[in-house]
Structures are given as C-alpha cells and as structure tokens.
Amino acid sequence: MEGVQLSQIDVGGIRTAVRTTGDASCDHGVIVLLHDGAFGSDADLCWHTIMPELGRTHRVVAPDLLGYGGTSKLHDFESGPYFSRIRHVEALCDTLGIRGVHFVGASFGASLLLVALSVGDLPAASAVAICGAGGLYRRHDNFNDLYDVEPTRECAEKITSYVVGPCPGYDELIDRRFDNMFVPGHWECLQAAKLPGVPRDGDRIDVRDGLRETETPLLLVEGIEDRLLEAGWSERLAGEIGGAAAHTQVPGLHLPHLDHPAAVVTAVEEFIGRVPPEGAAGTGANR
Fold first, then answer.
1. Alpha-carbon distances of 95 from 12, 89, 180, rounded to whole Å
2. Gap between the Cα atoms of 25 and 89, Å rounded
3. Is the separation of the CB atoms in 127 and 219 below 8 Å?
4. Nearest to residue 254, comparing CAs of 31, 55, 46, 1?
5. Does the global pTM surpass 0.90?
6. DSSP H helices in the chain
7. CA atoms within 13 A on the CB side of 226
8. pLDDT per position in the chain (287 positions), as tens?
9. Looking at the domain that runs over 5-274, which CATH code has it been given?
10. What are phi and psi of 200, to 5 degrees?
11. Is the dihedral of CA 162, 163, 168, 173 positive or negative?
C-alpha cells in the first residue's frame, strides 16, 4: 500500500505485524483496523483499498491478527477465537500507547469488535462493524460452504467470490489470498478449531445483552449484496440493542470496502466525525 509502513513489534511476547499510515500527531485520533478471518486473509489484503485514504485525516494502525500474516501462529483452545485476539489487540494498543481509538472491523474483525464492546474490554472512542454481528444472522447455506478449506487456488477463488464483487484488481485479490494460504502455520492455526473436543460454537456469541449497556458510539455497516449475512441484519441488530447503535447500508458484498471503497470511507469518516471530541479520550467502558 502506498504510504503504508510495515513493521514487526513485540506485543507481550507475541510477534506482531503492524501496518501504519497517517500523521502520528494528527488531531483527529487513531483508527485501528481489524481484518476479516477468512482463510488467506491479513491486514494488507483486507484494508489496502481504504487504509491510505483514511490515513489522510487520521493515524491508522492495522495489525495482522493472531494466526494471520506476519503475526505469531497461536490458537487458544480454551476461550475460542475471540478472546485471545481481543487481549492481543488490547496489548497492542498499550504497547503503542494509544487510547480513545476509533475501531473499524470487517467480518470476523467486526464480530471480534462487537464481542469486545459487549464485555467492555477495548479503549474505544467509537466502533464501526462492517458485515459482522458476532455470529448472529448468518446465512448458513452459504457460510457453511466456506467452513472446509484447503490451500488451493480453487478455494481462494471460492472465498473471494463470496466476499467481493467484480472490481478492479479482482484477480489480484485471488492471487494474494492464494499466496497468503502458504504462510507457515496459517492453515494449521485455522484448522486447530476443528480438532476433536474443540467446541464448534465458539465463534457464536450473543453480543446483544452486552451491547445494550455500552456507551461507545457504534455503526453497523451492511453490504447490500452480502451473501453471508441475512438482508437487513444491521437495522435489526441496531433495533435490538438500541442505545449508541446506528446502521447504514452500502453497495457491495461481505467486504464492501474492497469493491466499493469510496462508499465505505465516506460512511466511516462521517460517523467518526460525529463523535464528540471528548470521546477520543474515553475508554469505551460500559455503563
């Protein structure tokens, strides 16, 4: 990505790949991007279309989550897919000395964000969840089709077809996902969740009760053509949790910032722009 720096840092003993852009002294605050959890993803693949644009007005930080890209390949067999990654993101913010963060998550990253908000564990000034609802409102017919994965180009093509519509660089997205599948330890880390005795419902957490208590401004972004979540999920979830939640629809599939980046950038920047300045100093604690 143009203007984006990649570094490897130690976060509580965990090797962590982090991409950053924007002015570190920017008065508009810090945006932390949490990428999707599909096989072959990482922060660069997920966010390359909008990270430079967001960096024009904010400092932007995009880590590779545990098990992905250049970050250590670790799996937590006890607490499921979310909580070890939430702790890692918290530790990353502490390591970088950033508080009052504007978090933006996509798909699994959005679900991770909602789970974290529901238990009050992130230093969030605001949160944007793009096509992720903590496992709620899934279209299981399509979602389950992506559960069994192998490091093949056919798999890379199938995943891409579910999450991204026709767009410039579409074939390159497939190539990059296919290459990422062969990062040492990545396939094994994702397959670990399928071992005998590991709970299969560990990625389904009903976040609604916890989100009803959060004071963190929250925007739910729905891709109009999303094939993995039920149509209207964002309005439904916003209505069920009330409070600080808002919702909007944008063109695109499950990762609309890849096929319609301008629409997503506009939605994110307009929402963050409405957050009171004092919110940037908050902790995102629940009521």
1. 8, 10, 26
2. 21
3. yes
4. 46
5. yes
6. 43-47, 51-54, 80-96, 108-119, 140-143, 153-163, 170-180, 186-191, 208-211, 233-241, 256-259, 261-273
7. 28
8. 568 999 999 999 999 999 999 977 666 689 999 999 999 999 999 999 999 999 999 999 999 999 999 999 999 888 888 999 999 999 999 999 998 899 999 999 999 999 999 987 788 999 999 999 988 999 988 887 787 789 999 999 999 999 999 999 999 999 999 999 999 999 999 998 888 766 555 556 789 999 998 899 999 999 999 999 999 999 999 999 988 899 999 999 999 999 999 999 999 999 999 987 654 443 343 33
9. 3.40.50.1820
10. -80, -15
11. negative
Task: Write down the residue that tokens 């390591």 correspond to.
Answer: 95
Residues 61, 98 contacting (CB under 8 angstroms): yes
List the structure tokens of 33.
């991007």
**Beta strand pairing status for 59-63 and 218-223?**
unpaired
The first and second tokens of residue 261, run together, are 């980046």
Say if strands 101-106 and 30-34 run parallel, antiparallel, or are unpaired. parallel
Phi, psi of 146 (to 5 degrees): -100, 5
Q: Map out the domains of the chain as residue ranges.
A: 5-274
